[in-house]
Specification:
single chain, mainly alpha, 3-stranded antiparallel sheet, 6% strand, 49% helix
Amino acid sequence: MLFEGDDGRRWVFDAGVFPLPGWKRVLADGFAERTGPAGGLRTLASARSAWESLSRWMSFLAALPQPPQQPGELSLAHVEAFQTQTEGTYRASQDVSAIRMLLATKALRPAVDEQVAVALQRRPVRPQWGVAGYSNGEFERLIAAARADTARIRDRIRTGQRLADQAAADRADRQGLGGRLARVRASGVVPDLGGGVHVAGPRWQLARHLFVVTADLAPLLVLLTALSERNGETVKELPAEHRVLDRRAVEVRGIKRRRGSGRWEETFTWEIGPPGRQLHTPGGCYLLLHELMAASRAACGSDRLFCIWSNGSRRGASGLKEHIAPFARNLDGSYLGLSAWAAGRAKPVMADPVGGQEPETLRVSFNRIKTSAEVRRTRRLGGHLPSAAKSNTMQVLFRNYLGKDPVIVDWSEDILGQAFVDAERAAVQAHQQLVALRGRPRVLAGPVSTEGLAADAGLDDESARRVAAGELDTAWSACGDPGRHPATGGECRVSFLDCFHCGNCLITRSHLPRLLSLLDALVQRRQQMSEAEWWHRYGPTWAAIRHDVLAKFSPAELARAEADKTGDALLDLIEEPWETP
């Protein structure tokens, strides 16, 4: 079965390799429907992924003690057994989804029991999505290394071009390096100079004066992936065709793979930046790579951005065929050796040390680069996910890139911690302003007596007796003079929550259990309303209790009060019903 994708790639899938002969024809028909012009699998990568899931499914069925010999014999028990076997693996969702879509095709739907189709709707449990990015230091070191190596590649090729230009203008240098480079540039063919076809052979040394070679791909891809904030597969497939917009930006029509047919192309608009900053902006980097690989692109006739000289004589290729678009056939990049490049530099890229041990060289992958780029953009935008979700939905951005990344977790904790500090500082200031107008609550730690209240709180004997007996208790404290408010001089009519900013307020250790219960109620109320509203309504009270009241009591007194506290129902009672969140 020949597959021709919308991405220009072709492949032959052979259902004859599957076990269980009764399945082969109907599977081939169903897969042809899924990969056909109206199907959802229109790129080679998506088709091969679904084919691999189908292969695992058929291998599982064939290994059963009594395998279903044809689709009509497939049972609910078979599906559940397959789901159990793949549960918790990274490919579980991929396999179940691929099989569900296949069994829903016109070729297979009539032959499969309805219970089987329903069972495949269950979403399998799988490990946490996403991969952690690099720390700030690791990411900066990685980008700096890629930028430095890209600059060396640029200088090397531009120097070779200048030597070729000089030799073309001065015929006396026909036999020198410049003359040889001029002839190679004119023909595109690197001659046989002896020394075999090894990577460091004379031909390779000559070619790299003019062309990007395989060993150059790692830093070029790393840098453009980091600057563009796109995934590695998208960068590999970038086209050479582009538009420059007012010398400020470059517009490229690239591939952003999405599920479904006809929804995987996207236009990227990247800043070029000022001259001399090509290695710092995505548009500038794209145009630089376009320049460096132009000669190989012309030689092989490709429309892709990435075109290189591949020393192809090792594979039997020669002449212009040694110029290739390395990702035209497939996106496999296992030969790129990103980690080997980072470790093999004169100054290796090092990971952060762990636990006081010697640092190791950094392990480099496109997924971690993309995650780190997403983290940086999210931080740059203040954590606002709708703005940060450039190439993915907010849900995909958080689940796949941000949710488990230690850099974003630490940063979020710092942001929330600072926000808490700022809000608490504002609440304390509001409390202090009220205290300046009304007086500070009087807090009496230790045992309470009538004489002590009269001496320490400045009460007359009758008021001191009533406070000691609890006769002047309010909701959570006592009031020394409810008939005369310090600010108005008249009868007190404010909320009991305002008592903590009043000079008439008296608090003894007998009030502690109720105060601790009030704090618990405030914490619970915080979960029912916005942070801003909570701090506005309850912040000054919370700050007064935490800073002006509890600090006056000993740990032993607080511990006894913690054991004696009960649930607080007063907070709901002292607020008007329409004020309750």
